[in-house]
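Contributing new records

If you add data, match the layout below exactly. Sequence lines come first and carry their own label; structure lines follow with theirs. Keep one chain per record. Anything else will be rejected by the validation script.
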Amino acid sequence: MTTTLIGHPEPDPHLSDPAAERRLLGAILRHPSIGDHALATATATAFTNDRHRAVFQAAAAVRGRGQPCDPAHVDAELSRHSSAPADPVTIKDLHQLAAHAPPEPVAIYYLAIVRDLAALRPKPTPAAPDTYRAQGDTPEGMPPVPMRGFLTDDD
């Protein structure tokens, strides 16, 4: 007897993998080809940590100007912006990220993890207020459930 889940789980707002984010940032700082691929594939919103997001944005700015995306250039870009996170990233942190970077094929795996977790997180919709959530009901008038869908018996 086989059972199949039809439907999809509700998005989890806390889906993140900080270790994958750190390894991806290290690979961006160490391997130029990974940096190009990551900057074309992921966005800053894929990173859940403010420090990681700031490093990614600085790396994208450096790469956009055609400069090498190494710790020194990214540190200069971070120090140039006043909108840095409350806990600033130091040049020592950037060198540590680059020193612990995985090999290029493994870095692609971490890029996929960061990108896919970002896709699974719910997207904020400021234009459409979520009035039914404030009332505790879904649009169908039913109480919210953690999983929408049902199981079918395939036999």
